[in-house]
Amino acid sequence: MKARLVGSNIISHLLVLLCGIFFLAGCQQGGAVGGDFLSRATLQESSGDARLSVFLRLKEPEGPNLWMKISNLEVGSYNTWFPLRTAREEIQRQDVRSNGQILAGRGGVPAGRYQSIRFTVEKAALDRDGEKIFLSVDNPVVEINFPSELNLAKEDSTSLFLTWDAAGSMQGTAILSPRMTITLQSIPLVTDLAYVSCPELDTIYIVRTDVNMVCGSIGISGKPTTIIANLAKNRLFVLAPKASAVKILELTSNRLIDQIRIPLSIKSTYMTVSSDGKWAYLLDEMGNNLVRLNLQTGTVDGQIRVGSRPKYMLYIEEQNLLAISCAYAQKVYFLDATSLTIVNTVDTGGTPDGLLVRDNYLYVAESSSNSVSVFELPGGRNKSRFNVGIKPRRLVFGNSHIYISNYGAGNVSLLRPGQLNVSRGIQVGGMPFEMDVSLTRQWLYVGDESKGGISVIDLSSNKVAGWIELGAAPDTFVVVN
């Protein structure tokens, strides 16, 4: 056993050296809250590896503003150590306090059992008004045992949570002895949770919306993109295009309970699911097809060629219609969800992308014309078109406003239904894309592909209130209220 573990350790080190890709990108988070330093730590791992993400929190919000430079982040399995990538070399208590939680590191490790984590404190200082007063470090190698053994299977993705006692780490006035504890992920029942897919990591992160912190992660092979939550059916539907499958998880346990294979001839790029959980509707952008998949029998139940480059789809339950935006055709098609026949078409003035139906009006984000068009329903008569930010992509409704993510402008536009102009914009920076709303908590979540995380906007003030750091590009963000 020991020889096999040592061999695995050597292989793991070689894989890290040859295949690891580590991005550190400083960026300024818009709004009052958010770190001014954010990493994009992405490890290209070999097939079958398990993944570990390590997040850091504070035990108490108050305390000395300590600074540490760390290295050699590793997890231990029976005294054999496997390296992880540090998300940042420098950790400052004030940054952790501002965000509530930061990503400390992540990486791929062999499947197996793990008992501990360790890292090295290279330097430490007390930051006073921007001036560093360097401290002596007592026992620079910090090793922390897990509260219980962690068993990782192939394709698992799990999270660990370090809690830093900053005040307790100071020994007198000149010595730092880092005090940290660690907990394994413990995901609460389906309440005040959100799920965010990160395709490049084969991972879905789970966020607690009451505190806006990651509380766990799930490994989903196949580059998971679109996720649909159905609380009534206790299901989470995940499109995994690389695996050509729709994967179905049980919300209360976050266990994979089924996966439906998609024919290899269909290259699925987007998905929606009927409210009864019986049908998945898949867009094949390159093949210009819409496919209906029977989730009970696992068979393709219908297929139709629609437009040119279908990009986005909205299921309008009240009318049993599918609205599909087609980029090259510059049209939105309405299809009967049962017969899969086209019942209406509207022409857009630019490349249509995200769609929203509100009060018998269809709102269309037109990315190429930097505008949003409004059409009356039914019928599709064009009511208005107004300018928003650069390259609008998605629309959501919350707290009497329509919010529009402007992918090319780094901001979110606000529109009141019925008005013909944008009232204001919220600067979030980066490349805002997918969004969702927590109605119970009155948060708007905005995924940022370039900065690798989620901006949190307070709907009562329409100001940025937080930042959820993932260190990887989020795809879909879904709130389960």
Helix content estimate: under 10%
Number of domains: 2
Ends apart, CA distance between termini: 46 Å
Can you say what the CATH homologous superfamily of the largest domain is?
YVTN repeat-like/Quinoprotein amine dehydrogenase
CATH class of the largest domain: Mainly Beta
Structural class: mainly beta
The outline comes out as globular
Number of strands: 44
Please tell me the overall pLDDT.
Answer: 89
Rg, Å, rounded? 24 Å
CATH architecture label of the largest domain = 7 Propeller
DSSP helical segment count: 3
The biggest beta sheet is recorded as: 6 strands, antiparallel
Strand content is: over 45%
Catalogue the unreliable spans.
1-48
Examine the coordinates and then state which fold CATH places here, giving the name of the CATH topology of the largest domain.
Methylamine Dehydrogenase, Chain H
Description:
The structure is a single chain. The chain has 3 helices and 44 strands. With 481 residues, it is mostly beta strands. It has 2 domains: 2-184, no CATH class; 193-480, Methylamine Dehydrogenase, Chain H (7 Propeller), CATH 2.130.10. Strands 4, 5, 7, 9, 10 and 12 form a 6-stranded antiparallel β-sheet that branches. Mean pLDDT is 89; it is low at 1-48.
Briefly characterize the structure.
The chain is mostly beta strands and 481 residues long.
Record the SSE blueprint.
Blueprint: H1 2-19, E1 20-25, E2 38-43, E3 50-58, E4 66-77, E5 80-83, E6 85-86, E7 90-92, H2 93-99, E8 102-109, E9 112-128, E10 131-134, E11 136-137, E12 141-152, E13 157-164, H3 166-169, E14 170-171, E15 175-176, E16 180-184, E17 193-198, E18 203-208, E19 213-219, E20 227-230, E21 235-240, E22 245-250, E23 255-261, E24 270-273, E25 279-284, E26 289-294, E27 299-305, E28 310-316, E29 321-326, E30 331-336, E31 342-347, E32 352-358, E33 361-366, E34 371-376, E35 382-387, E36 392-398, E37 401-406, E38 411-415, E39 424-427, E40 432-438, E41 443-448, E42 453-458, E43 463-469, E44 477-480
Parallel strand pairs: 3-13, 11-15
Antiparallel strand pairs: 1-2, 3-8, 4-5, 4-7, 4-9, 6-8, 9-10, 9-12, 13-16, 14-15, 17-18, 17-44, 18-19, 20-21, 21-22, 22-23, 24-25, 25-26, 26-27, 28-29, 29-30, 30-31, 32-33, 33-34, 34-35, 36-37, 37-38, 38-39, 40-41, 41-42, 42-43
